Amino acid sequence: METLVTFNSDGFALEGDLEVPQSAARRKPAIIILHDFGGHRDGPQQRWSQAFYSQLGYATLRFDFRGCGDSQGKRAFVLPHDHVADTRNAVTFMTNRPDIDPARIAVSGTNLGACVGVYAAGLDPRIAAVVAQGGWANGEHMFRAIHRTPAAWDKFVTPILRGRQRKSAEVLVRMHRFDLIPIPVRLRLNIDARTIMEFPVEVGLEMLAFNPGELAARIAPRPLLLLHSAKDDVIPVDGSYELFRAAGAHGDLHIIGGVDHFMFSEDDRRVADIVRNWLARSFPVE
Question: Is 136 exposed, middle or buried (0-12, 13-18, 19+ CB in 10 A)?
């Protein structure tokens, strides 16, 4: 049964849903679920993740980053380093619970949540394992890969440069979600009305400079699982290749055909088997 919880992150009340196996007679290993760019904890990938991990016997926490969903914070200020802080504060919240094993807390993220999970684990040795689906290592490399042509790059970077110039004048420049990270129409069913669609230019600036690959090598020897669609139409598969190399070829990298960027909402048996088997080997319940 899910329990609504709130915890503090740098003065903001963050809201989440906690599920601890009812059979818990002792402290349980836990997985914290990190949502995607501008999303929220009730997204289809997050719902699937919690149901999947809970069925395997893990305690699970899915929560809204600050400024997203039902959490406090300036709406739409989706800043990766704030998300990293929120993740580490979620770990603190879980370690303080008597029903959670503080030495066995993992994170599982999709899209930006994957990158945040890698970065947070590089900083915080309390994170015992990482599952990262559809992430990237270097912000600029990622944006150049999705805005491939000179015209597309100019369309992406011009508002960011304009916003940087206007910051001193306190003029809020906004960018549409699909101008930051385009998503094909056929995949937009994964984006609901609660998903943020416009962002201040600061989001583009910080995401350009956010490089989880810089900290990926610090995760070893803790378990790391990287997953990516072979023909990802949102974040090119090169993102996870680069992340794997940045981690020193540590961990496990799975490139999967026949699924898309939102693979954790497709209930694909191959994806489920990969994650289940990896957890059994690298981060078992018992």
Answer: buried
What are the domain boundaries of the chain? 2-146+211-282
Its CATH architecture, for the domain 2-146+211-282, is 3-Layer(aba) Sandwich (3.40)
| Residues 204 and 166: beta-carbon distance below 8 Å | no
Q: What pTM did the predictor assign?
A: 0.95
Q: For residues 202-226, give the mean pLDDT.
A: 96
Q: How many CA atoms lie within 13 A of 212 on its CB side?
A: 32
The residue behind tokens 């029903």 is 99
Contact 255, 282 (CB under 8 A): no
Q: Helix or strand or coil: residue 256?
A: strand
Structure confidence at residue 1 as a pLDDT band (50, 70, 90)? confident
